[in-house]
Design brief:
The complex is a heterotrimer.
Chain A: E1 2-6, H1 16-26, E2 31-38, H2 42-49, E3 54-61, H3 70-80, E4 86-90, H4 93-105, E5 111-114, E6 116-119, E7 122-127, E8 132-138, E9 143-147, E10 163-166, E11 177-183, E12 196-200, H5 207-221, E13 224-227, H6 229-233, E14 254-258, H7 264-270, E15 275-280, H8 287-290, E16 293-296, H9 299-310
Parallel strand pairs in A: 1-2, 1-4, 2-3, 3-10, 4-9, 5-9, 12-13, 12-14, 14-15, 15-16
Antiparallel strand pairs in A: 6-7, 7-8
Chain B: E1 3-7, E2 10-12, E3 34-36, H1 38-52, E4 58-65, H2 69-79, E5 83-88, H3 95-109, E6 113-117, H4 128-136, E7 140-150, E8 153-160, E9 163-170, E10 173-177, H5 189-195, E11 200-203, E12 216-222, E13 231-233, H6 236-246
Parallel strand pairs in B: 1-4, 1-6, 4-5, 5-11, 6-10, 7-10
Antiparallel strand pairs in B: 2-3, 7-8, 8-9
Helix pairs in contact in B: 2-5, 3-4
Chain C: H1 8-18, H2 21-26, H3 36-54, H4 56-64, E1 67-69, E2 72-74, H5 79-88, H6 107-141, H7 144-156, E3 159-164, E4 180-183, E5 189-199, E6 208-215, E7 228-233, E8 235-237, E9 243-246, E10 249-254, E11 265-278, H8 284-289, H9 292-320, E12 322-325, E13 332-334, H10 339-371, H11 375-410, H12 413-416, H13 422-431, H14 439-450, H15 457-473, H16 480-502, H17 508-537, H18 543-559, H19 562-571, H20 575-578
Parallel strand pairs in C: 3-6
Antiparallel strand pairs in C: 1-2, 4-5, 5-11, 6-7, 7-11, 8-9, 10-11, 12-13
Classes of the chains: A alpha/beta, B alpha/beta, C alpha+beta.
Chain lengths: 311, 249, 585
């Protein structure tokens, strides 16, 4: 059973999502090849080669792959597809964009957002924003999977180095043109993989206060910052910070919700966190129903006290 | 552009809490309120705005589902779509089969642009648009938060994990919508009434020669595991001390 | 936080399963296209508008209120924009005649949209509601010239309407009013006088306000037979149909009042304003009364709507609020577990659903009265409408107000403070018991006029329908105890009705003294009848069926027995009421 896993990275580092998806991939097959795509990605390929359980790193290095555009990326994966029983990727914006394109060409029904591998052809996945869990079994000859990374621990680094092979990238006149990318810069850990996440809601009241209240606390705890949809819609935080059904799904060790009421869409994005802390002045806010620790109070008073208590 | 095609899906209303059937065969939909999938509604709204801006001449909406999905199509017509197609089927086909049916519809209607919701809030697959693009071999721009027409190309801002990505795709193309693309309108009463008279054609999957047999067997649908009840703390100091005890800090 | 969601599923259940409107409309050529899918789309979209746009302005409008600046009324922030959106979306023309740009939909749908408007924002809902009253009056009685000039703009919502009846000395007795109308050479009239309590009398939401004013012609006989009706625009309409010069209509003051703060209730001065006669001289009150049934149905549904808004908040709160321990429980429970909280919520729900059923039943009869091709059907329908109008107006606003108090009580202290909106519902609901004829006046109307109308045919017709439902329910074992309770209530109602119409309580004084209690007995029995009809219409094991059966049982067991006590208190006659000499009060 050979698995092709698409590496997820930002051209500087291999994301932790890849190591998490690898854990799922290992449960679906015993020989795992990882495909690193992009332009100038040899360092990423070397990082991938150190992951435990990878037998081969395939490198597709081509300027056309620099922006993760679906057309060339799908064509690259499809050029290899014949050799694999399973094709998997982390359910990141790249994985979600490209894998269905691969699956359709293979005439395979993709299984999205796998949260548990029961057998190599049977999986659990959330439906209805996590309000139900579906167990599905596929009859397709090839399995195409996206992995919800918050449901799997990252695979550790291995002892040796996997073999690194460069592959030919299909050439074509790709129609999609990359124009620009606005990347939110941050020194903090990445939201999807941070051990601690601090999220703010609309109760913060403004973009300035969102930054000023959450920033120092996140600094102190070395935490990533997240936001509710309401806060993003109100313009307090950029969209890539949104935690929820339609934003990022996170499952850190500690999730602190500040002034977030806990709409069902938000809960879907964080309820698998190991410990959830809710701070809200509305004692009846639904967020308290999922919180391990609830504190009813005004976050503008509680947060400074929290910083003080942390020392 | 001459024609924009917008596929829409009828789903359990997003405000209704889904209830899993006791026999684990799925989520109970009987007697429940069904509505247009919110991402599909955004797709219809975007198409109507493009038409209102003079960028398109006609909007065709299509739904694949039970007879009741006509209500969803009528809503799209009331929002401003011109014509509707219902491909009636009682079994809910998977995204792959839907994409194949939509390919057949595209071959028939020859749209310049297909706008779809990025995912349906029932099965949460997030596949149909990409699969359709693949089957048609069209370029795609998924998770759009802004669209503008530039000659015979579309400039699309996409919501990606790292931030925002802007692509330019030539037409014909596939676009899937994210939440912030627009805020769907309230329909005007005269438009609701006019929508009753707009053309709505009903066909079935066999008319398009598409096999909609399922590839995935649903073994069980269960409610998610529940969390154990939490505790209330009264001060920040108490909270920090409790968290330290768990080892997370 | 609280929110309002239009109960479209409940409404569709009544229309489809209880009243079968599709087959009723099928007999009416003008409504043959009004199918259930159309109705559902209209209701859903109206509900969305109310939840998304009007509901968020309800509390802010209450807090800010209307104010008078330099003689002009300023409505609260957001109202003008919401009204613009409302008109733009065509909601003002829902049931208006297609001849003047309306959609011509039946009253049955209009009244459901009115319920949503009342629930989400009563102050706002009165603007289009009063405009519709004015439109219907103009359409029924005005000259073609006036209709062509005014109706399209009013139906489009570009202009709004106001009804100027009351004066400081002429309230329930309009025969005392003093405003005068003097003929001019050009066939129009000069109107002079002061009116009070004029809802939507002036505002900043539309470009013109069309007042329908009751006034006396110089040769008018005294009393109600000397009142004529006039159309007075705030701005005179120019030849091109646009508003022109100001018509000497001014706002004397804004009334300071208990509720509906976002609704400008004005003292209006007509200082030689130009007006045009509507209908025949001295027959103004009769002209005004042609739309009275519709207006009273509208006011009744205001009580219902506000009660439902209060219920929705109370039910949500009761499910979430953890307080106290339920019987047989060791942990803190949501308050829905407490029997007393359930009692309050069920009382509200039992009234709201039966009240809505009675409203729709009556609205459908109004549609028959207007659209049915068979004159005998129209006549029978008109009789039922006349009979049930005072019942709906008074009972729905009385019980509606009581429901808002219960909805407030469920929240305890949180119901008394402003934050949750429950205290506003109590204040807002109160007016509906007073205006458009106080509930006391409604009870008089029922007992003194409607019971004997047409030789008692309407009441016999209604009782026949109740008997028929009792017979239909007879073979259904699971409805036996509900049916039994309804049968008991009905027996009380029949007995008391007989005593009031040709028995020992039939003198005017006895009927007067019995009126309010009798109306309540009448309403409760009708609710019981409709609960039986609703339970007969549920078939499956859906949540809705479970809810209907449980609520019907609650109503039968815990509320309907009140009919026995009402019958018994009416039976004691007027003696205890009239015994105390007036000077000893």
């Amino acid at each position: 059973m050979t698995v092709l896993l698409l590496a997820d990275h930002d051209h500087h580092t291999l994301s932790e999502a890849t190591a998490r998806a690898l854990t799922a991939a290992k449960q679906t097959g015993n020989d795992i090849h990882i495909l690193v795509t992009g332009s100038g990605v040899s360092a990423i390929a070397e990082a991938a080669a150190t992951l435990e359980g990878i037998s081969t790193v395939l490198v597709a290095d081509d300027p056309a792959l620099a922006a993760n555009l679906a057309e060339p990326l799908a064509a690259t994966i499809l050029s290899l597809a014949g050799q694999y029983d399973t094709i998997a990727a982390a359910a990141t914006s790249v994985g979600k964009d490209v894998l269905p394109r691969v699956a359709a060409r293979l005439d395979v029904m993709q299984i999205s957002d796998v949260i548990r591998v029961i057998t190599p052809d049977t999986f659990e996945r959330p439906i209805y924003a996590g309000n139900a869990i579906e167990t599905v079994k596929t009859a397709d000859p090839v399995r195409v999977l996206t992995i919800r990374t918050s449901a799997f621990n990252p695979a550790p680094a291995g002892e040796g180095m996997a073999e690194i092979k460069t592959i030919a990238v299909p050439q074509n006149t790709w129609r999609t043109r990359f124009e620009e990318e606005t990347v939110t810069k941050s020194d903090r850990p990445e939201l999807a993989s941070a051990k601690i996440v601090i999220s703010g809601g609309r109760a913060l009241g403004s973009a300035d206060r969102f930054r000023d209240v959450l920033g120092p606390l996140a600094e102190r705890l070395h935490a990533a910052i997240g936001a509710s949809r309401a806060a993003v819609d109100a313009g307090y935080a950029p969209n890539d910070l949104q935690v929820g059904q339609t934003g990022k799904v996170v499952a850190p060790d500690l999730y602190i919700a500040l002034g977030i009421s806990g709409a069902i869409q938000h809960l879907a994005g964080m309820k698998d966190s190991k410990i959830i802390v809710a701070i809200n002045k509305d004692a009846d806010a639904p967020i308290f129903q999922v919180a391990d620790y609830g504190l009813v109070g005004d976050l503008f008073e509680v947060v400074p006290e929290l910083e003080k208590a942390l020392g | 552009m001459k024609t924009i095609l917008v596929p829409v899906k009828m789903v359990l209303d997003a405000n209704v809490r889904p209830r899993v059937r006791a026999d684990e065969t799925g989520v109970d939909l009987s007697g429940m309120r069904l509505s247009i999938n919110p991402f599909c509604e955004i797709a219809v709204e975007e198409a109507v705005r493009l038409k209102e801006a003079g960028q398109a001449e006609e909007i065709v909406v299509v739904s694949i589902g039970p007879a009741k999905a006509q209500d969803t199509l009528r809503q799209a017509l009331a929002m401003g779509a011109d014509r509707a197609l219902l491909i009636e089927t009682a079994d809910s086909p998977e995204p792959l089969a839907i994409a194949k049916l939509l390919r057949a519809v595209v071959e028939q209607e020859k749209p310049d642009l297909v706008i779809l919701g990025k995912q349906a809030v029932d099965d949460d697959c997030n596949q149909t648009g990409q699969m359709l693009a693949s089957l048609l071999d069209w370029p795609q721009a998924t998770f759009a938060s802004a669209i503008s027409v530039e000659g015979d190309r579309l400039r699309v801002t996409r919501e990606v994990d790292a931030g925002l990505q802007i692509l330019s795709v030539p037409l014909p193309a596939i676009v899937t919508t994210d939440l912030r693309l627009n805020e769907p309108r309230h329909c005007a009463l005269p438009n609701i009434m006019k929508a009753r008279k707009k053309p709505l054609t009903v066909s079935n999957p066999a008319d398009y020669g598409v096999d909609t047999a399922r590839r995935l067997t649903v073994i069980a649908v269960r409610p998610p595991a529940t969390r154990k009840a939490g505790i209330r703390v009264s001060t920040a100091a108490e909270l920090v001390s409790d968290l330290r005890q768990t080892g997370v800090l | 936080m609280p929110s309002y969601k239009a109960p479209v599923d409940e409404m569709m259940f009544l229309l489809r399963d209880v009243l079968d409107v599709r087959s009723v409309f099928a007999d009416m050529p003008e409504q043959a296209d009004t199918d259930e899918d159309t109705i559902q789309s209209v209701l859903e979209e109206a509900g969305r508008f109310c939840s998304d746009i009007l509901y968020p302005l309800n509390m802010t409008g209450d807090v800010e209120g209307c104010r008078l600046e330099n003689g002009a009324v300023i409505t609260p922030k957001g109202f003008a924009a919401a009204y613009h959106a409302f008109s733009e979306a065509g909601w003002g023309g829902l049931s208006a005649s297609p001849d003047y740009g309306g959609q011509g939909l039946p009253r049955t749908i209009q009244i459901l949209v009115d319920e949503m408007l009342s629930a989400s924002n009563l102050s706002f809902g009165l603007f289009p509601g009063l405009t519709r009253g004015a439109v219907e009056t103009i359409e029924a009685h005005a000259t073609d010239n006036l209709k062509t000039l005014y109706l399209p703009k009013m139906i489009a919502g570009t202009w709004t309407g106001a009804m100027a009846l009351t004066e400081s000395n002429a309230g329930s007795d309009l025969g005392l009013l003093k405003t005068t109308a003097k003929p001019r050479d050009d066939g129009s009239y000069t109107i002079t006088g002061t009116k009070i309590f004029i809802s939507s009398g002036d505002h900043d939401m539309a470009e013109n306000v069309i007042h329908l004013v009751l006034a006396r012609l110089p040769d008018a006989p005294a009393g109600t037979k000397g009142i004529s009706l006039f159309l007075c625009p705030k701005f005179l309409v120019r030849g091109d149909g646009k508003p022109g010069v100001h018509n000497n209509i001014s706002v004397g003051a804004l009334e300071h009042k208990m509720g509906i703060h976002a609704q400008p209730t004005c003292v209006m001065n007509y200082d030689g304003s130009q007006g045009w006669l509507i209908g025949t001289p001295h027959r103004g009150l009769a002209a005004m009364f042609t739309m009275m049934n519709a207006e009273r149905l509208f006011v009744g549904v205001q009580g219902l709507g506000v009660a439902d808004a209060s219920y929705q908040t109370a039910a949500t709160y009761a499910l979430e609020r953890l307080q106290g321990r339920a019987p047989n429980s060791n942990t803190t429970s949501p308050i829905i577990a407490h029997p007393d909280v359930r009692r309050m919520l069920l009382s509200m729900r039992a009234f709201i659903e039966a009240g809505r059923a009675l409203t729709l039943f009556t609205a459908l009869e109004m549609d028959k009265e207007k659209f049915h091709p068979d004159p005998a059907m129209r006549h029978a329908a008109a009789g039922l409408v006349a009979l049930l109008t005072p019942v709906i107006k008074a009972a729905l606003t009385d019980f509606g107000f009581e429901a808002t108090v219960q909805g407030q009580q469920v929240l305890g202290g949180h119901g008394y403070i402003r934050e949750w909106g429950q205290e506003q519902y109590v204040r807002d609901a109160r007016i509906a018991m007073i205006y458009e004829g106080t509930n006391g006046i409604q009870a008089q109307d029922l007992v003194l006029r409607k019971l004997t109308l047409d030789d008692g045919q309407p009441v016999a017709h209604l009782f026949g329908l109740i008997r028929k439902t009792l017979n239909t329910a007879e073979p259904v074992p699971e409805l036996a105890s509900i049916r039994h309770a309804v049968q008991n209530a009905f027996t009380h109602l029949e007995t008391v009705t007989k005593r009031l119409t040709d028995g020992d309580l039939s003198s005017t004084e006895e009927r007067n003294a019995a009126a309010v209690d009798y109306l309540r007995l009448f309403a409760l029995t009708c609710f019981g009848w409709l609960w039986l009809k609703m339970t007969l219409a549920t078939r499956d094991n859906s949540d809705q069926a479970i809810r209907k059966l449980a609520t019907a049982q609650f109503f039968a067991d815990r509320i309907l027995p009140q009919t026995a006590s009402l019958a018994s208190q009416i039976g004691t006659g007027s003696a205890a009421i009239m015994a105390l000499p007036a000077e000893l009060f």
